[in-house]
Amino acid sequence: MKELEEKIRQFETVLPGNVLKVDAFLNHQVDPVLMQHIGQEFAARFKDAKITKVWTVESSGIAPAVMTGLALGVPVIFARKHKSLTLNSGMYTADVYSYTKKTTNRISISKRYVDKTDRVLLIDDFLANGQAVEGMLQIADQAGVEVVGAGIVIEKCFQPGSAELAAKGVRVESLAKVSSLADGQVSFKQTEGED
Ligand code: 5GP
Fold first, then answer.
1. Closest atom, ligand 1, to C-alpha of 124
2. Can you tell me the distance from the alpha carbon of 23 to that of 14, in angstroms, rounded to the nearest whole number?
3. Quick one: which of 68, 4, 3 has its CA closest to 39?
4. For 92-139, how does the pLDDT look when each residue is reduced to its tens digit (9 = 90+)?
5. Confidence of residue 67 (pLDDT cuts 50, 70, 90)
6. Alpha-carbon Rg of the chain, whole angstroms?
7. Ligand 1 atom with minimal separation from the 130 CA
8. pLDDT of res. 192
9. Closest alpha carbon to 162 in 190, 134, 129, 135
10. Could you tell me if 186 and 20 are in contact, meaning their C-beta atoms sit under 8 angstroms apart?
11. Could you tell me the pLDDT band of residue 78, with boundaries at 50, 70 and 90?
12. How far apart are CA 51 and CA 118, in angstroms?
């Protein structure tokens, strides 16, 4: 998605540890027009998937997920993160290691908002090692719902997440594919169907 790549270039900042900083438009200040276009793009790519819910993880996935839910006309659930290990019988839970924060959070989704018949699209801001998406897949397994795929705003192709999801047969649609962040420079992999 050209518009997204241009935005990444405009604010190009790479932090130590191969972390791309996107807080100018995605995970602190949010560009609503870009988010709307991101939501429309995910909706178009998954238009035949009969999606009934969009899931994401708080907080950075919420903006693109809500816009995707708006474009598809379906509700959005964001899994909540807890430091505490408290068990709650009303929740589906999974443990997720955060690549950027180097901590493990328990994520949870209330059973109240899950139907056995749901067809779920997972959305996240980044795909790096695949932990966040893996956590949502575990919750989907517990809930017995079908995952139609994962919509990723920025995929870091040089990290193992996308290959691991492909090996599991998960359809992954990424709007920007970053092939390298070496020397503080962003390189994009050419995406299929790009105009
Ligand atoms: P994964 O679970 O795939 O290892 O990483 C996904 C999560 O880590 C994302 O939800 C995102 O919050 C964070 N993350 C991973 N890589 C980056 C990055 O390069 N920049 C930023 N800002 N967040 C990242």
1. 10
2. 12
3. 68
4. 999 999 878 889 999 999 999 999 999 999 999 999 999 999 999 999
5. very high
6. 16
7. 3
8. 57
9. 129
10. yes
11. very high
12. 8
Residue 17 CB neighbour total at 10 angstroms: 9
Amino acid in the structure at residue 124? D
Q: Residues 146, 170: contact at Cβ < 8 Å?
A: no
> In terms of pTM, does the model score above 0.90?
yes
- Residue identified by tokens 């200040």 is 29
Domains of the chain: 2-183 (3.40.50.2020)
Give the whole-angstrom CA distance, residue 181 versus residue 13.
10
CA of 128 to the centre of ligand 1 (A): 6
Structure tokens at 46: 């998954």
Ligand 1 pocket test, pick from 19, 28, 100 with the greatest ligand atom count within 8 Å of Cβ, gives 100
